[in-house]
Amino acid sequence: MKILVTGGLGFIGSHTVVELQNEGFEVVIIDDCSNADVKVLEGIQAITGKLPLFEKIDLRDKPMVAAFFARHQDVEGVIHFAASKAVGESVEKPLLYYENNIGSLVYILQELSKKEKARFIFSSSCTVYGQADEMPITEDAPVKAAESPYGNTKQMGEEIIADTCKVTPGLHAIALRYFNPMGAHPSTEIGELPIGVPQNLVPFITQTGMGVREQLAVFGNDYPTPDGTCIRDYIHVVDLARAHVVALQRLLNAKNEQNYEVFNVGTGKGSSVLEVIQSFERVSGEKLNYKIVDRRAGDIVSAYANTKKANEVLGWKAQSTLDEAMKSAWDWEKKVRNN
Ligand code: UFG
User: Fold this and answer.
1) Which of 34, 69, 101, 337 is most enclosed, with most CB atoms within 10 A?
2) Given this model, what pLDDT does residue 339 score?
3) Which residues of 197-232 are buried (b: 16+ CB within 10 A; e: fewer)?
């Protein structure tokens, strides 16, 4: 069965392609390579023994999207990762984010709406909750006003899918609200490859550990948390990738009678920035050079998932501990730098 994975050369996309191929799905990847390297295909092949199909397409090009679906009429499901994802950049270039993240989504849904039956999985984010009032966060927590155009594209994306599903009975969709993905495939064949200075905590830590960055700035230690640093729910990217496979299987079995559902995808455990640093020091045996600096604008204090719905409905649960995820991130960083 053929599944389209947009953004399949990216961090979460590539790990999901591996899990799909391991489950016997035939994968076709669309990526515009704006934030990913075609060499990722070799890593996927090394792990799974199979080279996925790949087409370099910019999903903002509506005729190209239509032509792709005309060529691949046997695509039975789409997992849509392709999107711009830098919060800060989205504030500077809102129209780029709306064009990339909303335009591509609309064009794909237009094509899927023509099919008698279609399944769609959307990369959403816990950013839709903003600073939730209660921890852990359930899917029923209110969606708060978005703090950035990036966050807004995730909220709007969910609404666009929900509205489309209402009038398209053949379309079955799931939005997965990711918490904080980290780590790499244990084979070290694929992993996270941030371009330039990493914005996210874990790649910044591993790059600092390797000496690529001099020092990690910890953004604030005066938050109302036990050690004063912010709390997040860090999930191993392989666990996150597997969540897509089980969500897809649910859609293929048409078990979601409502035809649109959302799920949190996290571990359910919150870790502070200092705990993440300690995890790095444990698994690497290295001391991390860091200093406490001022808070970063826009950071929320705490976000971790209630994972009951994914556990009960999808039968999915994160398997890896923070240390296991950190070890995979560190092994990957060492491999990238030593090559
Ligand atoms: N942090 C540091 N120093 C750094 C980088 C991060 O102290 O150099 C801290 C942040 O202040 C935060 C934590 O580490 O407390 C995690 O920060 P990340 O930037 O790794 O992740 P965020 O939770 O801020 O952002 C992530 C995704 C966004 C998404 C958001 C949803 O990167 O795309 O979750 O909440 F919008």
Assistant:
1) 101
2) 80
3) ebeebbbbbbbbbbeebeebebbbbebebeeebbbb
Residues acting as catalytic residues: 150
Give the single-character DSSP code of 133: S
Q: Where are the beta strands (DSSP E) in the chain?
A: 2-6, 26-31, 53-56, 75-80, 118-125, 171-178, 180-182, 216-219, 231-232, 234-236, 260-265, 271-272, 290-293, 302-303
What is the rounded distance in angstroms from the CA atom of residue 168 to the CA atom of residue 151?
Answer: 26
- Token pair 């499901």 is found at 77
Written as six digits, the tokens of 59 are 């999903």
Helices H / strands E in the chain, number of each: 12, 14
Q: Say which residue the tokens 């996210």 belong to.
A: 200
Whether 150 shows a pLDDT value over 90: the answer reads yes
Distance (angstroms) between ligand 1 centre and the Cα of 180 equals: 8
For residue 130, the one-letter residue type is: G
Cβ-contact 94, 149 below 8 angstroms:
yes
pLDDT at residue 257 is higher than 90: no
Rounded Cα–Cα distance for residues 317 and 263 (Å): 12
Separation of 282 CA from ligand 1 center, angstroms? 21
Beta strands at 216-219 and 234-236: parallel, antiparallel or unpaired: unpaired
Protein residues whose CB sits closer than 6 Å to any atom of ligand 1: 85, 87, 125-127, 151, 180, 199-201, 204, 216-219, 230, 232, 273, 296, 299, 303
Tens digit of each residue's pLDDT (9 = 90 or more) over 100-125 = 999 999 999 999 999 999 999 999 99
Exposure class string for 155-183: b at 16+ Cβ within 10 A, else e: bbbbebbbebbeebeebbbbbbbbbbbbb
Residue nearest to atom 3 of ligand 1 (CA): 218
* Alpha helix segments (H runs only) across 23-93: 40-48, 62-71, 87-92
Nearest Cα to 14, choosing from 251, 335, 339, 332? 332
Ligand 1 atom index nearest CA of 273: 14
Model confidence band, residue 338 (pLDDT cutoffs 50, 70, 90): confident
Note the pLDDT of residue 258. 87
End-to-end CA distance of the chain, in Å? 36
